[in-house]
TrEMBL record:
Gene Ontology MF term list: DNA binding
The protein's name: Response regulator transcription factor
Key words of the record: DNA-binding, Phosphoprotein, Transcription, Transcription regulation
Species annotation: Microbacterium paludicola
Annotated ranges, domain Response regulatory: 4-124
InterPro entries: CheY-like_superfamily, NreC/VraR/RcsB-like_REC, Sig_transdc_resp-reg_C-effctor, Sig_transdc_resp-reg_receiver, Tscrpt_reg_LuxR_C, WalR-like
CDD domains for this protein: LuxR_C_like, REC_NarL-like
Domain HTH luxR-type: 152-217
One Gene Ontology term from the biological process aspect of the record: phosphorelay signal transduction system
4-aspartylphosphate: residues bearing it: D55
Length: 223
């Protein structure tokens, strides 16, 4: 199946470069380009892409607000895309807000071509992705500055003890294999737990699970 991509960036050369790179790979097709957040919202509803590469800082409407609108309840299209945020700096003031808005991950603009292509495929498959430079310590730092959500604490009570253990490790950025080793259980069992956790907390992917872990107080910011 071909992955359709919408590129939203206010720099024409950046859009053109990403478009040429992605179109050159089998199974990926650039459906459209937007020069600002407002255009991104409109084109997303019309084109219904699988993935949006969304620049954080854009005129008229920034990438954070565009992400909120596209992933919000009033979004008019039937198919909701996955959004991969693009940023120039590895520690960006908007990182945490973008993740809370529903972005599936972050990628630096200076990432290697293969990293960009892989990121598009990973996000399109329903997984979450964070640039290696966007560390879990940084996520925790942003989480420490945000008020805890009361709903998170309520939903947390619905998790089993084992699911809480798994969620704590997800919050630490552990992979399924690492969680399996830590808890002495099979990796397939971890996948089952992760699926149940995402369903119970209403999260799209692991990034949203990390946010939930901090919002609920289950995971604590790194010192």
């Amino acid at each position: 199946m071909t992955i359709s991509v919408l590129i939203a960036d206010d720099q024409a050369m950046v859009r053109a470069g990403f478009a040429a790179l992605l179109d050159a790979h089998e199974g990926i097709k650039v459906a459209g380009q937007a020069a600002n957040g407002r255009e991104a919202v409109a084109l997303s509803a019309r084109l219904e892409p699988d993935v949006i590469l969304m620049d954080v800082r854009m005129p008229e409407l920034d990438g954070i607000e565009a992400t909120r609108r596209i992933l919000g309840p009033d979004y008019p299209a039937a198919r909701v895309p996955r959004i991969l945020m693009l940023t120039t700096f590895d520690i960006d003031d908007y990182v945490y807000d973008a993740l809370r808005a529903g972005a599936s991950g972050f990628l630096l603009k200076d990432a290697l071509p293969d990293e960009l292509v892989n990121a598009v495929r990973v996000v399109a498959a329903g997984d979450a992705l964070l640039s290696p430079s966007v560390t879990r310590k940084m996520i925790a730092q942003f989480a420490a500055q945000k008020p805890r959500a009361s709903r998170a604490s309520t939903v947390l009570s619905e998790l089993t003890e084992r699911e809480r253990e798994v969620l704590v490790l997800i919050g630490q950025g552990r992979s399924n294999g690492e969680i399996a080793a830590e808890l002495f259980i099979a990796e397939q069992t971890v996948k089952t737990h992760v699926g149940k956790i995402l369903a119970k907390i209403g999260a799209r992917d692991r990034v949203q699970a990390v946010i939930f872990a901090y919002d609920s107080g289950l995971a604590e910011p790194a010192s």
